[in-house]
């Protein structure tokens, strides 16, 4: 079979898949690395580990393809958004890669918003002004290490780093990644002068922006290591969020994609760059004429993992001896299914890692409200799941305010293996939720975009018919009504306690571990 390889560089692992023309996964691999947390609010990766992982994933999948008797006709790339790394003139990293989860630029983010520039910049760049964005990260460097900022020849992200390792090409980045930097005018298609001034960099320090369908060449050494023809097309690809929509077939109007892994997101596709009036939604490119709007939340499966570590360790449960973290999480979710919707009056603000959409407010922290003596472990877990799904429903409410209807959701990620997660999500969004039967939607999206670039998938909406789905879970009407009543309480309470938790951070700064592992 003729297959396309998709390489997806994620926050804690690089995934590689080989997919046939009908979307069938023929080979799959994963190369892991730790997220380094060297201090409060910081989250970094070793850039050399990312480059090595991309090469290894390609080599491993190509080897599996040969074992299957398949022929690799192209390679497509995906990368996570909002990272920044200093690089030399040849694309080699000069320091750690700062990830989307790094929050050190909170002061810079708040200052930009206080100056009245936030919504204006978001309207032009499609990226909310938030500590996640490269714009605010570079502004942090400008305030704290201006010499490094000025002397660094190049500033890039994950895609630039991976391309430097894989591609025999000039210094480049795809339109999709560029649209998530907060530095690129998605309407004028240029690096934004005001954003560059705030960041303290020049356009010459940033990569050339190319369409997501651009075909490049593999480095000869990489092609040899993978056993591939040196002429094998390398499609530059896009960012992980837009490609996740493509990979689950959520590109037609009215269809949204939900990702529920360590973090989460709700996204839908539109035909042109779109800025919402309230400044609550991002807008990133899939191709030059297909754009993805939505919102990402920092916390999803990570909240249940935290609950397992905090509430289940040391508790005796039948058959619990020797279970691993995934098994413990699954057991907690089954236990939480015994609690009624609404968790008997317990409300969770699940912002253990801060929060992004829909408010983009630095400094948010987690909390339980309405806690009573009769609440037990199962209530705490169910309430956390409800809190995450309600946060995604707040993003959906922002769609509604812009006249964008969502009638169907396709879900993917490790959390959707749980009946509780899917049921709560369907009720919170009040639409049917079908779980996509694909192990790696984002990497599959990279494969499909590569086929589109080669002319084999002219209409991206054809992807909707390629991805098998499970039977949709329909929302329970009573639960949907209850969650709609509770949702305004989440927004009012989250913003009400913001100043309290900021003062707590000043009084007792959080101590964080040096590494964190993700939930698949």
Provide key terms for this protein:
520 residues, alpha+beta, six-stranded mixed β-sheet, 17 helices, globular, disordered C terminus, FGGY_N, Gluconokinase, kinase, FGGY_Carb_Kinase
- Class from helix and strand fractions: alpha+beta
Helix run count: 17
Q: What is the typical, i.e. mean, pLDDT?
A: 93
- Determine the oligomeric state from the structure: single chain
Q: Major β-sheet, in short?
A: 6 strands, mixed
Q: Are there runs of 5+ residues with pLDDT below 50, and where?
A: 514-520
Biggest sheet, strands in spatial order?
A: 3-2-1-6-15-14
Tell me the total number of β-strands: 24
Q: What's the shape?
A: globular
Strand content: 15-25%
Taking all Cα atoms into account, the compactness measure Rg is: 22 Å
Helix content: 25-40%
Characterization of this structure:
The protein is of the alpha+beta class and 520 residues long. Helix content is 37%, strand content 21%. A 6-stranded mixed sheet has the order 3-2-1-6-15-14, with helices on both faces. It has a 6-stranded mixed sheet with strand order 18-19-17-16-22-23. α4 (134-144) packs across α8 (193-199). The longest helix has 25 residues, at 377-401. The two termini are 29 Å apart. Residues 514-520 have low confidence and may be disordered.
């Amino acid at each position: 079979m003729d297959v396309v390889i998709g390489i997806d560089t994620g926050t804690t692992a690089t995934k590689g898949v080989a997919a046939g023309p009908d979307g069938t996964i023929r080979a799959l691999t994963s190369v892991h690395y730790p997220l380094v947390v060297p201090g409060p609010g910081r989250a970094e990766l070793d850039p050399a580990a990312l480059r090595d992982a991309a090469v290894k994933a390609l080599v491993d999948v190509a080897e599996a393809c040969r074992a299957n008797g398949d022929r690799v006709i192209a390679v497509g790339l995906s990368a996570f958004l909002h990272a920044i790394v200093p690089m030399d003139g040849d694309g080699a990293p000069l320091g750690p890669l700062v990830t989307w989860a790094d929050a050190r630029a909170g002061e810079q983010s708040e200052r930009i918003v206080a100056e009245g520039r936030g919504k204006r910049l978001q309207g032009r760049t499609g990226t909310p002004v938030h500590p996640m964005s490269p714009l605010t990260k570079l502004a942090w460097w400008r305030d704290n290490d201006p010499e490094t900022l000025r002397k660094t020849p190049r500033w890039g992200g994950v895609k630039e780093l991976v391309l430097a390792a894989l591609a025999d090409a000039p210094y480049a980045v795809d339109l999709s990644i560029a649209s998530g930097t907060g530095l690129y005018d998605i309407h004028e298609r240029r690096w934004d002068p005001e954003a560059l001034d705030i960041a303290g960099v020049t356009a010459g320090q940033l990569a050339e922006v190319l369409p997501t369908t651009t075909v490049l060449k593999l480095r000869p050494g990489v092609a040899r290591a993978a056993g591939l023809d040196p002429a094998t097309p390398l499609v530059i690809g896009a960012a992980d969020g837009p490609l996740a929509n493509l990979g689950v077939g959520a590109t037609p109007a009215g269809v949204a994609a939900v990702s529920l892994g360590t973090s989460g997101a709700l996204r839908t596709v539109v035909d042109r760059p779109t800025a919402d009036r309230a400044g609550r939604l991002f807008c990133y490119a899939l191709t030059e004429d297909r754009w993805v709007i939505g919102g990402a939340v920092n916390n999803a499966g990570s909240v249940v993992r935290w609950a397992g570590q905090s509430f289940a360790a040391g508790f005796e449960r039948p058959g619990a001896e020797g279970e691993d973290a995934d098994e413990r999480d699954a057991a907690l979710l089954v236990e939480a299914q015994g609690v009624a919707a609404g968790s008997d009056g317990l409300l969770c603000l699940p912002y253990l890692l801060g929060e992004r959409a829909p408010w983009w407010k630095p400094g948010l922290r987690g909390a339980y409200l309405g806690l009573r003596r009769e609440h037990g472990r199962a209530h705490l877990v169910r309430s956390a799941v409800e809190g995450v799904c309600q946060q995604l429903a707040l993003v959906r409410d922002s769609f509604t305010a812009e006249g964008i209807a969502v009638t169907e959701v396709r879900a993917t990620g490790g959390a959707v293996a749980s009946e509780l997660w899917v049921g709560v999500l369907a009720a919170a969004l009040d639409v049917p939720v079908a779980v996509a039967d694909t192990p790696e939607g984002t990497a599959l999206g990279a494969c499909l975009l590569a086929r589109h670039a080669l002319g084999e998938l002219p209409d991206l909406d054809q992807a909707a018919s390629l991805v098998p789905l499970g039977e949709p879970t329909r929302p329970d009407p009573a639960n949907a009504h209850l969650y709609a009543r509770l949702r305004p309480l989440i927004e009012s309470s989250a913003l009400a306690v913001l100043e309290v938790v900021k003062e707590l951070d000043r009084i007792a700064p959080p101590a964080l571990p040096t590494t964190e592992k993700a939930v698949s």
